[in-house]
């Protein structure tokens, strides 16, 4: 059957011949910023839907898997994360997850497009509850430039919460960017980058990302898998890198006794997400 | 944008306001059997697509996660599975995975609809390579009746590879059916049932399934999660039950040294799939 475009928002991913659709009751917002086209819809069963340049960014109902799996594994892998930097993340959901960690003293969010944050504050207030936290700093500028200007070794964890590697986010997937990150993080510093779909991108984006991170000097790279219903294939990944720390080990006791609630993440889920499917084994060269 | 029904096959899941679509180049087969309406499409990027009563059953490209995660975890959890029974599974992909285990002496597949198997032999020959295995027996009859007629304690593992719990498969999700299974399996016998989407069905089908399995006498129940791109939400589950055996333990050394190749399953994936997301914790009463 055809999906009526009045009733359904559809994101076709033509390179892979697959589309994801949500039933909507109306469009709440549409805005062309200097960088991107932002839309917000009301859906029938998934709460509100944020779309940038035609791609689903998040829904109220299922964003928890993405935000939790990008924030908590890397933060529980680092021995003592105090200074955290988010590149992208304009919807502020990542900032909120990071600041659930009481040990974090400062979290800077650098998104090039202030329009995303203003739309999120208006339509996704549940993601923006930490925006006024005194440890939070929201900057609206180019993240690549920001990293280049940082003192060497000044950051503990960098979370790259970017859109797909086309358009504004393209520079966030290349070796030059990771060299800047390598310089900016401390010796025990970590980076995590959203790394698209294992089944769709294992031999393209994921492989290139591993190569670029290693090329930049990160000697350990590990990819976690987790579900994100509203992204192409419903199956997503996050790729962490370190200057030597074993990424398969984490502060498991701290994860078990974490002083905050989650909907998806826990220590067993963290360990499970590190399992590498057979068809992805060739990504691994050091584990 | 609208998805043109000439170019896209769409499965809307209206109760949850979500739809999944694949780009197709043509319909290869359509058949009304006494039980169901079967269609086969050629897709642009996912190989062939099998549809029953409008619902995606499998694609050539992504069926491996489902078949492997329904077959191998339960078979590596049982200490020595020799007699295996598949209820449903007419596409024969499950039979093929089961018979990769050299210790299995007999695998009976009981699907009510011979039309599914004949369509699969014609359009998905890669799933039917074990149909002529001397250990395989293909029966086309009612699985509920078949189980009732089995001698007590005569089966090691029952795999319920059914369609959704509406229509022909409805009886395969109820306590009466699981009581029949309980009688048919040996003391160390196990059952696994495909149990739909964790995010969509945790408080409906999944909760009811746990209750029904326990009500039938199975004292341990455990749900595994894994991705199936082409099913609603892209996030799927399998629920195992035992008469007392700890379902979190399995023959891990055997899984590591398995004498066959897989695309998704391995011992680490098995352990990882047993991790229970925070929002599913209330399903667990014995772990």
UniProtKB/TrEMBL annotation, chains A, B:
EC number: 2.5.1.16
InterPro entries: PABS (IPR030374), PABS_CS (IPR030373), SAM-dependent_MTases_sf (IPR029063), Spermi_synthase (IPR001045), Spermidine_synt_N (IPR035246), Spermidine_synt_N_sf (IPR037163)
Top-level taxon of the source organism: Bacteria
Keyword tags: Polyamine biosynthesis, Spermidine biosynthesis, Transferase
GO annotations of cellular component type: cytosol
GO terms (BP aspect): spermidine biosynthetic process
Binding-site residues for spermidine, renumbered to this chain: 67, 91, 161-164
Pathway annotation: Amine and polyamine biosynthesis; spermidine biosynthesis; spermidine from putrescine: step 1/1
Transferase found in the keyword field: yes
This protein's record includes keyword Transferase: yes
Catalysed conversion reaction: S-adenosyl 3-(methylsulfanyl)propylamine + putrescine = S-methyl-5'-thioadenosine + spermidine + H(+)
Gene3D superfamilies hit by this protein: Spermidine synthase, tetramerisation domain, Vaccinia Virus protein VP39
Molecular function per GO: spermidine synthase activity
Binding site for S-methyl-5'-thioadenosine: 36, 111, 142-143, 168
Active-site annotation: 161
Domain PABS: from-to ranges: 6-243
Subunit structure: Homodimer or homotetramer.
Stated role: Catalyzes the irreversible transfer of a propylamine group from the amino donor S-adenosylmethioninamine (decarboxy-AdoMet) to putrescine (1,4-diaminobutane) to yield spermidine.
Family: Belongs to the spermidine/spermine synthase family.
Protein name as it appears in the record: Polyamine aminopropyltransferase
């Amino acid at each position: 059957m055809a999906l009526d475009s009045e009733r359904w928002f559809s994101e076709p991913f033509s390179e892979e011949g697959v589309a994801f659709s949500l039933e909507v009751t109306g469009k709440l917002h549409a805005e062309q910023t200097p960088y991107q086209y932002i839309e917000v819809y009301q859906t029938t069963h998934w709460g509100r839907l944020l779309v940038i340049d035609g791609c689903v960014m998040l829904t109220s109902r299922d964003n928890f898997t993405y935000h939790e799996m990008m924030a908590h594994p890397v933060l529980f892998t680092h021995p003592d994360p105090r200074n955290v930097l988010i590149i992208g993340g304009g919807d502020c959901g990542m900032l909120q997850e990071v600041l659930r960690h009481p040990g974090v003293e400062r979290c800077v969010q650098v998104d090039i497009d202030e329009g995303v944050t203003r739309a999120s504050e208006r339509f996704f207030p549940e993601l923006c509850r930490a925006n006024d936290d005194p440890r939070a700093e929201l900057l609206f500028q180019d993240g690549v430039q920001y990293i280049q200007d940082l003192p060497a070794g000044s950051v503990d964890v960098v979370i790259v919460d970017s859109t797909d590697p086309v358009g504004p986010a393209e520079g966030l997937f290349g070796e030059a960017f990771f060299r800047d990150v390598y310089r900016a993080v401390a010796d025990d510093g970590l980076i995590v980058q959203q790394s698209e779909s294992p089944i769709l991108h294992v031999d393209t984006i994921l492989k290139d990302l591993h190569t670029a991170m290693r090329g930049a000097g990160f000697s350990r790279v590990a990819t976690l898998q987790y579900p994100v219903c509203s992204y192409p294939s419903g199956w997503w990944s996050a790729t962490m890198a370190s200057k030597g720390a074993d990424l398969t080990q984490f502060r498991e006791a701290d994860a078990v006794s974490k002083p905050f609630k989650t909907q998806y993440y826990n220590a067993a889920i963290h360990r499970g997400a590190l399992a590498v499917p057979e068809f992805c084994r060739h990504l691994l060269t050091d584990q």
